[in-house]
UniProtKB/TrEMBL annotation:
Gene Ontology cellular component terms for the protein in this record: cytosol
Active site: R170, S247, E343
Keywords of the record: Cell cycle, Cell division, Cell shape, Cell wall biogenesis/degradation, Cytoplasm, FAD, Flavoprotein, NADP, Oxidoreductase, Peptidoglycan synthesis
SUPFAM superfamilies membership: FAD-binding/transporter-associated domain-like, Uridine diphospho-N-Acetylenolpyruvylglucosamine reductase, MurB, C-terminal domain
Protein name stated in the entry: UDP-N-acetylenolpyruvoylglucosamine reductase
Family: Belongs to the MurB family.
Broad class of enzyme this protein falls into: oxidoreductase
FAD-binding PCMH-type domain segment(s): 23-194
EC number: 1.3.1.98
Subcellular location: Cytoplasm
Length: 347
């Protein structure tokens, strides 16, 4: 084993800069992973054997409610490349530690469209499959080819295809049976050569039209990228300025009968019919309707422009954010009979 492949543990490591809520907590040990071999060394090291482990990329989908008594693996694996092409598609691979948005921008700069709707999503490439990130009419799973991961218990390297990852709406194998068992080290995306713009999402269509794009009816991938960036900047808080983890709740999916009854009481409810006959509701609308938009409990607050986002106004703890989330869930359940499920992983 070369020197750079051995694990360098740092004790009492501050995690404030490693979670986008900006919670001021510490890890008992942390280890920065720049090469896959360091990962193997870290998980096999007797000094931390038996301790709980937490993998952090950008820390953009996690609520840390206290100090972490275990080993935090800070995934900083870098690199991106075109791996191959076939008649129908290009295949591009990125290491897990690459910032997601930079990777999306890079694919476009290489003349490879397909990920533009997912511009400006915080976090890393390695975190993208875990919750199957999605926005403005596209989910990551639609561009996914495979991923490489290391199994923590054995150190074995595995390659998983889309079927094995069991992607769902903000969901995957890694949030269920595979939880805490793997470290994703790289992801390969399949970008079809026949590209179709996805500009139907209302906010994006409006932005393209308002931007006076000559090509608003048939936008380029770059125009969609720019529109997504503009819409996100206008609606969603920048974690560097106001701590947050994006949408705090999933949009709930209810049975058609429940939806019909709700629609009678609340005719304006924002909803999206699902292929299976059920109906997805806009959780932001439900929360907004309960009067929570812009309201705070201590230093934790519901964002003023998007009620689905909870923010840390400065100095909030994870527990405060969770208390606010509970209050929001209670009100939405009481008024609409709908349960909201948290999107980030709460530790
Ligand atoms: N709405 C309100 N009040 C609010 C927020 C939303 O009335 O405070 C209404 C909007 O007017 C709109 C509807 O609710 O009619 C949906 O709002 P929006 O288009 O902003 O999207 P969303 O359903 O709230 C989802 C994703 C976002 C993603 C956007 C765009 C989830 C949990 N969230 O939000 O993803 O960017 O669609 O596709 O699915 C994330 O996962 O972290 C995230 C930001």
């Amino acid at each position: 084993m070369s020197r750079s492949d051995s694990a360098a543990f740092i004790a009492g490591y501050p995690l404030k800069a490693h979670n986008t809520f900006g919670f001021d907590v510490c890890a008992q040990f942390a280890c920065r992973i720049e090469h896959e071999a360091q990962l193997m060394a870290a998980v096999r090291d007797p000094r931390t054997a038996g301790l709980p482990r937490l993998v952090l990329g950008g820390g953009s989908n996690v609520v840390l409610t206290g100090d972490f008594a275990g080993l935090v693996l800070l995934v900083a694996l870098q690199g991106r490349r075109m791996v191959r092409e076939d008649h129908d598609a290009w295949y591009v691979e990125a290491a897990a530690g690459e910032p997601w948005h930079d990777f999306v921008a890079w694919t476009l700069s290489q003349g490879l469209p397909g990920l533009e709707n997912l511009a400006l999503i915080p976090g890393t490439v390695g975190a993208a499959p875990i919750q199957n990130i999605g926005a403005y009419g596209l989910e990551m799973c639609e561009r996914f080819a495979s991923l490489r991961a290391v199994e923590l218990a054995t150190g074995a390297v595995v390659e998983l295809d889309a079927k094995a990852c069991r992607f769902g709406y903000r969901d995957s194998f890694f949030k269920r049976e595979g939880r805490d068992r793997f470290v994703i080290t790289s992801v390969t995306f399949r970008l079809p050569k026949v590209w179709q713009p996805r500009a139907g999402y209302a906010d994006i269509a409006r932005e393209l039209a308002a931007g006076g794009h000559a090509d608003a009816a048939a936008p380029s991938a770059q125009a969609i990228f720019d529109a997504v960036v503009a819409v996100r900047r206008a609606k969603l808080p920048d974690p560097l300025q106001l701590g947050n983890a994006g949408s705090f709740f999933k949009n709930p999916v209810v049975e058609a009968t429940q939806f019909e009854a709700l629609k009678v009481k609340e005719p304006e409810v924002v909803s999206y019919p699902q292929p299976d006959g059920r109906v997805k509701l806009a959780a932001g609308w439900l929360i907004d309707r309960c009067g929570w938009k812009g309201r705070a409990m201590g230093a934790a607050a519901v964002h003023e422009r998007q009620a689905l986002v909870l923010v840390n106004r400065g100095g909030a703890s994870g527990a405060e954010v969770l208390a606010l989330a509970k209050a929001v869930q209670r009100d939405v359940l009481a008024r609409f009979g709908v349960e909201l499920e948290a999107e980030p992983v709460c530790l």
